[in-house]
Design a protein that fits this description.
Layout: E1 2-8, H1 27-38, E2 48-63, E3 74-75, E4 78-79, E5 87-102, H2 107-116, E6 132-135, E7 142-150, E8 154-155, E9 165-173, E10 180-187, E11 192-203, E12 212-214
Antiparallel strand pairs: 1-5, 1-6, 2-5, 3-4, 7-11, 8-10, 9-10, 11-12
Amino acid sequence: MEFYAPITSFRDPLFPGVTRALPVPPPSTVRGMLAAATGAAAEPAVFGMAAWPEGSGVDTETYHPIASNGTQPAVAGRVRADKGGMTVRHRPFFAAVHLVLWLPEPEGSRLRQALRRPRWALRLGRSQDLVHPRSMSRVVLEPAASASVGHALAPLDGHRVGAALAYRLATSVSADRLTTRWADYLWCEEPAGTHEVHGAFRDPAWSQREDQAVWLLAP
């Protein structure tokens, strides 16, 4: 399935208090979008994914920080000046974001059906970052020893592309939001060509010239 989001922002939760952004949606964010489609509290689905933006920018936002212990309450959405007041921060964002998901059976059919008529609005990132399904098709993935890495999200041992950077991303969040499972992934900012891959499949129906590598990511 292919999705498109005009604007998204993925804040890195490992850097609280600053607006450091991730370049790719964490798998937990994608699972949240799938849960919005089905209406379930969580969707521990296995899927492969690739994502890339066409552009990026930095916005300026006004924050009214409140204390979690209740000592700095907000009134009408604002914090009084004697309680810390407001602050202005830069927020990185991405524009024209493409997301491709490979949803294997048997859960794939159920999720695709839900995405045709989602229970809730589909979002990718913040609450206002709507995402639009663009197309869906059936493909048969084949085990691969080499394939185009592209912008696919891969486990650390998935390939040895030198330009790939490692990111620690949330794979899933419990329904009560008290437990987060983390894992390390590789992602390439620029599309990587054909390379040897490990534990991957290839999509021979990929619209590009080279077979796309796909890693199925467990929650």
